[in-house]
Amino acid sequence: MKFSRYLAAGVVIISTWLACTNTTPSTTANDSQELDSHVHQWLTRRLDSMEAGATRFQSLALRSASEEELRIAFKDCRRLFKQLEWFSVYYAPATSRQLNGPPLPEIEVEENKMSDPAGLQVMEELLFPYDTSASAALLKEAKGLLSSLIPLRHTIENTRFDTAHIFDACKMEVFRVEALGISGFDTPLCGWGIPETGVALSAVKEMMALIAAPDSLLKRLDQVIAITEQPTSAGEFDYAHFMSQQLNPLSAAMTDWFYSAGLQPIAYPQALKNTARTMFDSSAFNTAFFVHNADAVPTPEKVALGKMLFYENRLAGNGQRSCSSCHMPEKALTDGIAKNSSLDGSATVLRNTPTLLYAGLQQAQFYDMRSPTLENQILDVLHNEAEMQSSPEKVATWLNREYALKSQFKAAFPDIQDSIPPRHVTRAIAAYIRELHPFRSNLDSYMRGDSNALTGQQKRGLNLFMGKARCATCHFMPLFNGTAAPSFATTESEVLGVLARPGVPKLDPDMGRYTHTQLEGLQYAFKTPTIRNIAKTAPYMHNGAYKTLDEVMEFYNSGGAAGYGIDLPGQTLSADPLHLSEEEKKSIIAFMESLTDH
């Protein structure tokens, strides 16, 4: 579900402010001014073109032009936006969402409100297929598109551009097309993801030329762009090769050049480290970005304490359950059953146990996303009568009675005075969980250049995952969950219409996010979990009703609830069957098995 929480909106705003004020120490004042002037001119010309294109589209919509005319004008608008995307998403994320945001209502849980979608993706839904009865709605969207260009122009006028930020924006664009663009995330109906990737990268090339990137790097960009321009039959594009042999080497070469040239990177933290050569580097992520309190930033001392507590049965009120009772290492930190038993054994917990691997690299916890932080999630579990029936206060009480543990806590948290504060119990456990992101799968090795790390079947499965099966439009690379690169600022949910039992046309009664936030669009909505290590985490779905990946694939292949004849108005999963053959489903499963860490 393309519903954004904007939990990291503050980071985006600060980043944008910094982008407007910082300069690169390695350039002279005259060089900086000249670069700033050239970028302003480049952006203004393209924004003028997009405004003209949007005006043409509005005129066509106003006179109820033919479907062909409207689609040609729409394609031109999308192409013009893609030229601006490197700038728009980086410097003006809120405006960019208005221009090309998901065609679903934006839900702001904290404010308990929902706003209508707008922009190019909404226009796509009205045009593919086109029905003349939608002409009024199309005209409304065209007018809105023009209006959204006004704040974008203001952003251009009020931003001072420098080498460090232009480079960072361009590198993020390369990551963006890899995670979102080539999969058709924002072009699911018209299928223009690959050629639009070439347009976006052409703009990146022009910016890299302005910041004096060497010819060798510009030629590499030309090589990547040329591949996007080659005609391919439906379903024949080789995503696997394009990512591992083109996009990842490109971002690596860009990073190598930047640092070898002695340029100064941006100073503020982002989800991906400045030094990350690809999104699949083992140390690409900056864990601190996902932390909401300075005391919670992981250190070796905190991680060691958290690991000790994770396996400690005294966490539970009865002294007989630890975190590892439900999150077992040999099962990728799940438990292998549909729903675990309650603490007293009289019932089961509400939902299936999710993996904790990579849980620290997202912006919401639990299937219903009710906890924005790991600390809050741990607090919830400790207090839950069915799970732990305890509290941080109770845990801190017995910890304070043990001198050795108390000394360890004081070393990890220097602010501790006479006793361990309860809040440090959750922070220690969270620190341990935040470090559970190994990135040691065969897929990671393949993305780092080992072409033999995947079998032929797994490569075919990856291509299907990115293309025909549409999996990557919800399970975003590189985390393969609902937290989208390259900003990783929001975690999304989806309304799939999970069945109570596989193949039986009866909806599971769990209302998901709606249970805690009474907004219509959240009915049956659940967080998109990671599928890393999915071969070890059966059974599947929030209800644990799906025992095998074959059952899961059949559910998606059928079109979710709608495919089983269930009327679910808010379903975000496409209701259209995927028409995957048995061999194709097996290939996708084989690819998912390559996501197992070793």
Question: Describe it for me?
Answer:
By secondary structure, the protein is mostly helical. Helices cover 47% and strands 2% of the residues. It has 20 helices and four strands. It has helices spanning 9-21, 29-62, 67-91, 93-100, 120-127, 135-157, 163-181, 193-210, 215-229, 239-260, 300-310, 374-383, 392-399, 403-412, 423-434, 442-447, 456-466, 549-558, 560-563, 582-593, and strands spanning 106-108, 113-115, 493-495, 525-527. Strands 1-2 form a two-stranded antiparallel sheet. A two-stranded antiparallel ribbon has the order 3-4. Helix 12 (374-383) crosses helix 15 (423-434). The radius of gyration is 25 Å and the shape is globular. Residues 1-27 have low confidence and may be disordered.
